């Protein structure tokens, strides 16, 4: 029997050891003091109304589903009709969703109960959850350190058990890196496995919806519910549900790869490096073949990723000019109104990315920079295809170093970008990749070929008992 908070709580609800209303109140009471700045808004009335319905079903002897009555958190970039969806920004601080994101709707359809909209880097721009109007999110293990980003609030709520699971968003590592910083599981599924409809777009070609939880089994349960084709998102595809039985056995992983230059990189912390090498030895000791692979230098990956992500976010955020959405500030004329609204309401980091993106897309530069970025992305994808002809999965550290102190990354944006050195490559390749809270201080990342999310969970389960 695989460990699972969802299943344990489900059993308690079914056996009437706890009422759903009490469970939801208990979680809300943990969130109310907002000790770690994880809360943008509490969905108290909404959640309690749903909890009462679950209690009535149980009282009437009706069967409840596995996720029915389970309280979860939502990163504040997802639409949930009638709730504030702020993206932790001044521009949208009073914006209420007019509809619900597909992934969230699927969770509502099976009875899961959303209790909080969670603090994050504004529009997903950041790797530390400090770039937010609600104050920096504090790390679950050491509150003086950053929580990681951009899904920092979601990761901390799970780590502190303020929510049973949370739904983050991952563009270049925004689920995996905070999961690593807070010692929990976080999955970026294969691109297109889960609909992005109703997620505020950052970089449309790498944005992924994914679960954050304390066990592999809970990741699997939530992933299955959210996956699937959606007519509202043309990049989605039909995928098979992953069963508990398949991931419980590890018959299929015969070979594991890792990237030499990640480990030889000057940026890697010596302790992260030595811990990673000892993981490799433990895997070898189990009779699994381990292969050192060649890959692009991590600074090439970071610059390719940020070139494309900034171009896409400049384009995606152009709709936010205060005309249709958000907090409009009137100027002397229309152009002036646009300019003041955007200057005053966007954070420094968001402005940096929009300016960078518009530069990359501008005449004279786009051939030089943007097209080169696209070509590199294709090379990176081809490289991965070759790698997965040789090995079943790839393991890597989640981050080159440990979480910085709150305040430090704001002084040095470049250092913040480089903290994504080991996550962005897999985003560019649109691959399924999971952070597991083992191996190094910020965990390990397990990656497989496209649409092989099952293998990632399977190997994670094997590693749980191996290292």
TrEMBL record:
Keywords: Transferase. Signal peptide: none annotated. It comes from the Bacteria. GO terms for molecular function: transferase activity. SUPFAM superfamilies: Amidase signature (AS) enzymes (SSF75304). InterPro entries: Amidase, Amidase_CS, Amidase_dom, AS_sf. Residues 35-457 form the Amidase domain. Gene3D superfamilies: Amidase signature (AS) domain. Pfam families: Amidase. Belongs to the amidase family. This is Aspartyl/glutamyl-tRNA(Asn/Gln) amidotransferase subunit A.
């Amino acid at each position: 029997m695989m460990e699972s908070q969802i299943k344990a709580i489900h059993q308690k609800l079914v056996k009437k050891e706890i009422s759903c209303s009490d469970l939801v109140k208990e979680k809300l009471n943990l969130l109310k003091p907002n000790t770690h700045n994880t809360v943008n808004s509490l969905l108290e009335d909404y959640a309690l109304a749903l909890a009462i319905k679950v209690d009535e079903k149980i009282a009437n002897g009706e069967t409840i589903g596995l996720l029915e009555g389970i309280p979860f958190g939502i990163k504040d970039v997802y639409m949930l009709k009638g709730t504030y969806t702020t993206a932790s920004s001044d521009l949208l601080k009073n914006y209420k969703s007019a509809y619900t994101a597909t992934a969230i709707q699927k969770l509502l359809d099976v009875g899961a109960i959303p209790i909080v909209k969670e603090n994050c880097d504004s529009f997903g721009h950041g790797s530390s959850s400090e770039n937010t109007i609600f104050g920096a999110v504090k790390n679950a293990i050491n509150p003086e350190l950053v929580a990681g980003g951009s899904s920092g609030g979601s990761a901390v709520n799970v780590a502190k058990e303020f929510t049973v699971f949370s739904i983050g968003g991952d563009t270049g590592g925004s689920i995996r890196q905070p999961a690593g910083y807070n010692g929990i599981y976080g999955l970026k599924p294969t691109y297109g496995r889960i609909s992005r409809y109703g997620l505020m777009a950052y970089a449309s070609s790498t944005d992924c919806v994914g679960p954050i939880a304390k066990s592999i089994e809970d990741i699997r349960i939530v992933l299955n519910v959210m996956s699937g084709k959606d007519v509202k998102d043309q990049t989605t595809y039909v995928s098979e549900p992953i069963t508990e039985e398949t991931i419980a056995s590890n018959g299929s992983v015969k070979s594991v790869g890792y990237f030499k230059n990640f480990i030889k990189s000057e940026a890697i912390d010596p302790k992260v490096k030595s811990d990673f090498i000892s993981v490799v030895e433990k895997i070898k000791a189990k009779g699994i073949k381990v292969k050192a692979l060649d890959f692009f230098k991590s600074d090439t990956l970071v610059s390719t990723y940020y070139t494309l992500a900034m171009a896409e976010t400049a384009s995606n955020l152009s709709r936010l000019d205060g005309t249709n959405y958000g907090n409009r500030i009137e100027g002397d004329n229309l152009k002036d109104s646009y300019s003041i609204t955007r200057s005053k309401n966007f954070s420094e980091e968001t402005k940096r990315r929009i300016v960078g993106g518009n530069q990359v897309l501008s005449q004279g530069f786009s051939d030089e920079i943007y097209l080169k970025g696209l070509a590199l992305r294709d090379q990176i994808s081809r490289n991965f295809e070759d790698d997965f002809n040789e090995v079943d999965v790839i393991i890597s550290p989640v981050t080159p170093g440990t979480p910085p102190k709150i305040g430090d990354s704001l002084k040095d944006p470049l250092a913040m970008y480089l903290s994504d050195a080991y996550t962005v490559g897999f985003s560019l390749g649109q691959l399924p990749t999971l952070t597991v809270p083992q191996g190094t201080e910020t965990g390990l990342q397990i990656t497989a070929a496209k649409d092989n999310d099952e293998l990632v969970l399977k190997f994670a389960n094997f590693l749980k008992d191996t290292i």
